[in-house]
Amino acid sequence: MVQAQTNPGVPGRVVVALGGNAISKRGQRGDARVQLENVWGTCRQISKMMKAGYEVIITHGNGPQVGAILLQNEEASRVVPAMPLDICGAESQGLIGYMIQQSLQNLLQEQGIKVPVATVVTQVLVDEKDPAFENPTKPVGPFYDEEEARRLAMERGFTVIEDSGRGWRRVVPSPDPKGVVEEDTIKLLVESGAIVIASGGGGIPVVKRGGKLVGVEAVIDKDLAGERLATAVKANILLILTDVNGVALNYGTAEERLLGSMTTSEARQYLAEGHFAAGSMGPKVLAAIRFLENGGESCVIASLERAWEALQREAGTKITP
Q1: Which candidate, 17, 26, 134, 138, places its Cα nearest to that of 85?
Q2: Which region among 14-28, 166-180, 208-222 has the lowest average model confidence (pLDDT)?
Q3: Which one of 20, 67, 97, 296 is the catalytic residue?
Q4: Which H or E run contains 293?
Q5: Which of the residues 12, 19, 21, 296 is marked catalytic?
């Protein structure tokens, strides 16, 4: 176990894992102006953390943005070649990183805080033998009718499924992250005092073949990748921000109960009992468990709107060893 560290006199080193609602909220059209407005509001909270003296590293989701890029690929495929999913992920890291980076730079300048901000296009290593590659489950990209979906499966080798009565979609593997390729670069930037934006969208999934890195068509869960990032930079705190107030038992039922705190052993028990869905809260809780077992001090899962209160232990669910 590697013990988390920070600089003397600093409240803590925190990795802030932003959910999709930090950039594109449900029901919004998602044009550039709207996304920038959302990012600006999110960055106001992050600048408050900086003003209080926290060392901040940021990671984020990219689902709507990659979805838009894939749709643009599809519509323009008769004019320009469509790009594979790993390259689309890299594109999304750049565009979201740019919005967060610029917003933070402007906000910090307003407050007289001189801290460099940098986005790192980040690759995340996965195992080519991960069982996920034999069982793709993560829907990506646009919806198709059945005929078009089956044609794409034949022509491009896509795996397609019928998605909850809404149409047909491509599904890709979601392998477990093993490590951050740019770990040393990120650590150098953090130690120099920079705010770093990294591992966006779970990182660009890569495998090693013949000693070389190769991108693969897959999607890594952003919170599990966020844990790898937090462990790599020896963060004290992992702050996972989402669109609910915290972790709840019996979510969505009359017996729903929001948890103010839990230990890793309790979290493992609740996870085993099936309280947390695989596509939503499950990976967040698993990321918290891994982070704490790897030397982190605490993880808080909370609503994006109450990020500052969550960092002060006044909101969300706090998870400790």
Answers
A1: 138
A2: 14-28
A3: 20
A4: helix 281-293
A5: 21
Annotated active-site residue 21? The verdict is yes
Give Cα 28 to chain centroid, integer Å: 20
Confidence (pTM): 0.93
Q: How far, in whole angstroms, is CA 73 from its chain's centroid?
A: 23
Told to judge if 19 belongs to the known catalytic residues of this protein, a careful annotator would answer: no
Look at residue 181 and give its three-state secondary structure.
Answer: coil
Alpha helices by DSSP H, listed for 8-162, are: 32-51, 63-76, 85-110, 146-156
CA atoms within 13 A on the CB side of 136: 16
- The catalytically annotated residue of 12, 63, 89, 222 is 222
Written as six digits, the tokens of 47 are 């600048």
Distance CA 317, CA 113 (A): 30
Chain-centroid distance of CA 139 in Å reads 16
Give the pLDDT confidence of 168-186 residue by residue, as tens digits: 999 999 999 999 999 999 9
Q: Known catalytic residue: 318?
A: no
d(CA 196, CA 55): 10
Q: Is 114 a catalytic site residue?
A: no
